[in-house]
Amino acid sequence: MARNAKKSGPLYRQLADTLRKAINASRYKVGEYLPSERELADQYKVTRITVRGALRALEKEGLLAGEPHRCRRIVSVPSERGSIELFFFKTQSPFSDPILTDFCSGVAAQVQALGYNLVLSHVSDDTAIERHLARMDRMPPRGVIVIGSYEWYGPVMPRLEAKHTVVLVGTPHGSLRADNISPDFEGAMAMAMGHLRSMGYERVKLLVGGFPEEEGRDQRNLESFRQAGQQFGFPPAQLSVFSTREVCGKKLAPHEAAGLWIKDDVLDGCKFPMAVVATAPSYAKHLLAIAQAKGLRVPKDVALICTQESRTLGQPPTPVTSVSIYGRNVGEHAVRRLEERLQSPSLPRRMERGEIRLIVRGSCGEPESMLTPPETNPQEELR
Asked: What average pLDDT does the segment 85-103 reach?
């Protein structure tokens, strides 16, 4: 990239302008990685020092984000309307997290449709949280969408709400101002239990207890399990619960998580056939491994359904039936709610449940009443 005499400013600024235009033209798309510093230097015929200067400039503008041992990821595109910040409180980056990938895709699409600049803030520790909050003080976004692990976002919510317009997608505990789209744990449990009942199961075990007590998720799952059991006519004596929190062997503070693990003897003494409802994908994957180690057939001996979808659950050899609570439509809805709040700040606070969807897979197949009509292609329906 030869210096252009008609352009003012140092060479790294000229390269930053070129890369910005490439991002704006979708040559590099949000969520993708830029080429490495060496590849960019070769492509534009500049030094790596020039490349680093250009990348730092684009990071300060909020267009790029650095990740350890990775190239820079494109996290937003230029926009005159300002930016919407997706504050993502998880260890994995937004577009690689198997539980929330579809949600993030929905956010990105709706933000772009409304003409905003999307900024992805991936926070995995306290240092990253403080760094992003300081950046938001310097360059305030138009609005913020928060999602991720309650243990991290819960303590930060009061600070975010005090300075920004926020939509929280998650448990609202600790939030006083933000519009809230709460995961519909009750609806997901009812959908799962109704599906099992339509399949003819009577014996059901619930896997629960891995989340912080003050979040309230486990209690909601437990109560809705009992209510759904009564609603769908399950014999009370045939419903059982495994709680990680109760068997972890130590007293946990309300904000501490017990972890998403189950004991290897969780199926010992059970009568088969039976069904298991897992409240997290990690539970579901561990249960599959235990069943296979014991020579049990899934779903003939043990049917499995998870009340939280993850792309990992669709993988062979035994794809797991699940309920999606963080789908693409929920991401799109969160952006629309934020836009409404930005247009009408005096609206009363809104608390609602996110949309849910049953995804039927091999671990707990379709009941006769749910089979695809003969005139359609069943494979198309299951995609």
From this structure: 84
> What distance in Å separates the CA atoms of residue 274 and residue 130, rounded to the nearest whole number?
47
The tens digit of pLDDT for each residue in 240-271 reads: 999 999 888 888 888 888 888 899 999 999 99
Residue 68 pLDDT: 64
Asked whether the domain spanning 83-183+329-353 has the same topology as the one spanning 11-62, the reply is no
Backbone angles phi, psi at 33, to 5 degrees: -100, 145
pLDDT at 8: 61
Domain assignments of the chain as residue spans, ordered by start: 11-62, 83-183+329-353, 185-324
Separation of alpha carbons 147 and 210, rounded Å: 18
CATH superfamily of 83-183+329-353: Response regulator (3.40.50.2300)
Count of other CB atoms within 10 angstroms of residue 112 = 18
**Choice among 4-18, 34-48, 153-167, 325-339 with the minimum mean pLDDT:** 4-18
- Can you list the alpha helix ranges (DSSP code H) found in the chain? 11-24, 37-44, 48-60, 101-113, 126-138, 150-163, 185-198, 217-231, 244-247, 281-293, 328-343, 378-382
In CATH, what class is 11-62? mainly alpha
Residue with tokens 């009564």: 230
Residue 344 burial class via C-beta count within 10 angstroms: exposed 0-12, middle 13-18, buried 19 and up: exposed
Report the pLDDT averaged over residues 13-28. 88
Q: How many residues does the chain have?
A: 383
| Helix and strand counts by DSSP (H, E) for the chain | 12, 14
Question: Nearest Cα to 204, choosing from 176, 233, 229, 187?
Answer: 229
pLDDT band for position 6 (50/70/90)? low
CB 172 within 8 A of CB 182: yes
- Return the SS3 of 19: helix
What is the β-pairing status of strands 117-123 and 357-359?
Answer: unpaired
Question: What is 185-324's CATH number, 3.40.50.720, 3.40.50.300, 3.40.50.1970, 3.40.50.2300?
Answer: 3.40.50.2300
Rounded to the nearest integer, the mean pLDDT of the chain is 87
DSSP letter, residue 236: G
Tokens of 355: 């949309």
Strands 179-182 and 166-169: parallel
